[in-house]
Every structure is written in C-alpha cells, then in structure tokens.
Amino acid sequence: MFKSLVRFYSQFGNALSLSKVCPRSQHSQFALKYSTATAAERRRFYQDVSISQGEGGLYEINLDRRKLKTPGGKLFTVPNEALAIAVATEWDAQRDTLKFYTMHLTTLCNTALDNPTQRNKDQMINAALKFLETDTICYRVEEPLALVELQKNEWDPVLHWIENRYNVTIGSSSSILGPDIPEATKETFRQHLNSYNLWALTGLEYVITQLKSVVLSMGMIDRHLSVQEAVLLSRLEEEYQIRRWGNVEWAHDYDMYELRARTAAGALFVHLSSESSTVKRKLLQD
Fold first, then answer.
1. CATH second-level architecture of 1-45+100-286?
2. 205 with 197: CB under 8 angstroms?
3. Mind telling me which InterPro entries this protein's record contains (predicted)?
4. Of 29, 159, 172, 226, which one's alpha carbon is 20 to 30 angstroms from that of 219?
5. Which are the contacts of 221, defined by CB distance < 8 A and separation ≥ 6?
C-alpha cells in the first residue's frame, strides 16, 4: 500500500533508511522514553497499517482496528494526508520487532501533539534563535592553517548565500563568544520562523538541534543544501580530524548515518507539516 511513497521521499536520498542500522542518540533515548511503548523494542503486535480521515479533516493511523495514540493518551492525528502516509509507512516498515528509536516522524508527531515541555510558539522560536550566537559555521578556528582554509572554503559560500537570501548580516568569528549578531538579523529570522506553523516549527527546531546551526538548517529546508551536504558541513572539523588522525572502527560511520537519518526525518517533517493539499490517490497504489 505504501510502496509508492518512496518516490515522495526521493529528494532526501537514502538518509532516512540508514537509521535502521544505527544506535540510539541522546535525543533518541529521550524520544524513546516519550514514545508509544516503554521498551526500546517489542514484538510487532499488528498486521495491517492504514490511515483514515476523522473529525475536523485530521488523519488518523490505524494498527489493525486500533487507533494509534500518543504517549500522553491523545488520539494520534496529523494535519494532512501526506504526513499520515509517511508515519504509516514507518509503522508498516517495522518487522517482527518494533524499533521505536528509528521512528523519527512518529516521535516528532508525538512531540507536536503532546507538547511535553509545554512551550508556546514564541518560546520555540527563541530557543532556535539562540543557536545563531553559537552557530556551527560562524565559529572559526585560528589554527591549524589547513583547517582555517577548509572552514573558509566550505562554510563561507553557505554563509554568503543565507546573508543574501534573507538580506541579513551574520559574519563569523574566532572568538569563543562567537560573532556579534545584529538585532535586525535576529528580528528577520524571528519573523521568518513565525511564518511556520507549530508542527513545522517543531521539525525545524529538531533539525537545528541536530546540526547545531540555523544557517545549515535553513539552507537545507530551502533546498540550497542536501541532507548529506548539511551533515558533512556540520561535522567539518570532526571530519578533518578523522582524516588526519583516523577514527574508531565503525563508530564514525554509525554516527554519520544516524545524524543523516535524524536530519532527513526533521527536514521531511517540516515539508510534510507544511503540506496543505491532499496527496493524490495514485500514491497509495502499489
């Protein structure tokens, strides 16, 4: 039923599927606690996954004849068909054992529905904007020279793009305090973030937290950067050190794949949460 949704995911490459081979992150451990089950894994207890439209035009996820609920006990509902199909696909893709820590879209929906931290939209925007002051690509090293040049060559083009795109000034600094971000820049981004609905903002804040960067997150959401590019740029210094000194066997790949999976899921969640049109029925056909 959900096979053709793969085409809907194509812009995000294979990043989402890679989460199946990755260990849990600190965020995922929190999400696991705040999930649809108390255990990290449990046996699959349903055969069929389907979606249905309920009251107010919201979409529900059905596991056999049972309606999915949030950890807070609310009926699990999403605002549009596209997101419902994506979440249903996560549940349908699980095999004999349910791995909740791979179900990033389900977790983000639970967060948006239950709002466990009880924050409003302004508080979420303020939390996201704090990353501007310590943005990954705004803090520059003074040595070694090779890393200085690498940061300049790889990060400056993205920084210049976002400054031109939003008509703002951000800059960079080698000071531990980071660059001095003008209030006008913060206000511009505040207004832009305020244009997102609460669901999309939940996903965007999640992406910013993963990349530790507003600049890279916006670059990816605006499709200026791919998921793979944004993740590599966020890990530029770490990748430099690995090339120079080597890495612990397998650890580097696991970390990379998991970060890609979480970042891709967050970006997909932003776009699907902003989707207002109904997905054509042909997407539901095998």
1. Orthogonal Bundle (1.10)
2. no
3. ATP12_ATP_synth-F1-assembly (IPR011419), ATP12_ATP_synth-F1-assembly_N (IPR042272), ATP12_ortho_dom_sf (IPR023335)
4. 29
5. 204, 207, 267, 270, 271
